[in-house]
Amino acid sequence: MSRTHDVTISAFDLERLEAELEAERSLADRLANELLNTLSAWIVERDAEQAVKALAAWKEARSERR
């Protein structure tokens, strides 16, 4: 047994949701780039400092979104 609900989203709400989705995608791209940079640094230089900076940047970006 399933229930179906009609949901109406206003243009304003839709634009806001799309903006939030784009911000999350941008943040995910930023995180992926930092992860790639970190892995590259570990492979080439074994630079743990880069990993610490990348993690700090990610945590800061996440806190900006909340």
Overview of the molecule:
The mean pLDDT is 78. The chain has a domain at 27-66. It is mainly α and 66 residues long. It starts with 10 loop residues before the first helix and ends with a helix. Helix content is 77%, strand content 0%. It has helices at residues 11-44, 48-64.
What is this entry, summarized?
The protein has 66 residues and is mostly helical.
Shape: elongated
Strand content: under 5%
Q: From the helix content, strand content and strand pairing, which structural class follows?
A: mainly alpha
| Major pleated sheet | none
- Amino-to-carboxy terminus distance: 37 Å
Helix percentage range? over 70%
Topology overview:
Blueprint: H1 11-44, H2 48-64
Q: Characteristics of this structure?
A:
mainly alpha; about 70 residues; elongated; 2 helices; single chain; about 0% strand
